[in-house]
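QA checklist item 7 of 12: single-chain prediction sanity check.
[x] sequence parsed
[x] length recorded as 218
[x] structure emitted
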Amino acid sequence: MNILLIGDDRSLGEGLQAFLHHNGFTCIWERDITDIKHIWRSASLAILGRQILGKDSTRLLPGLLTIKALPVIILTTCADVEEKIAALEAGARDYVTKPFAHIELLARIRAQIRPLGEGNLESGELLLVPSKRLVFWKGQKISLTHKEFELLLILVQMAGRVFTREELLNQVWGYKKFPSTRTIDMHILQLRRKIPNIKISTIHGVGYRLADDGHPDL
């Protein structure tokens, strides 16, 4: 698994890179957050410093997630609640305050990547078995096409997050093979038809979101 580490702290960067390599991960360490699109596309998870060479990474994060949606962990010295909320609302999945133990960060990384392919995924009455590409709604097996399954998997993995149509096209069809954005609309329509009462909301002018169990749509 490829982990992208972005931060300008040399001591922290070198130490984390060596630690992650020792624990079986491929870790690419970059000191600047600009011009990393090609590296971002190859990553499975990203770890970002809150401030990188004077740049606020959370302001740049939404744009990076349009290139490829992946789990992001923010590292910071700030324990302010509002700062944490801002990072999470920007698209981060976790927020770790310095100083921290490397083994704690490792546990958080494993917690983030576990739903991305290991074990079953649940969202309300919906159950996905990624290893067998099976979907169940209230215990009943649902037949989905390959693309419908991939689209649903992304929505379930990051339930509660708003995805633009371009992000979903990028993730399911690949950024070099964009069909029309209407393709996403048609596949969402099919998911709604096949899975009754699934809470996929249309965010007008933006895209779609699957309701998080902990934060259901009103």
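[x] summary fact logged: Helices lie at 10-22, 37-42, 57-67, 81-89, 102-113, 146-157, 165-173, 182-194.
[ ] second reviewer sign-off
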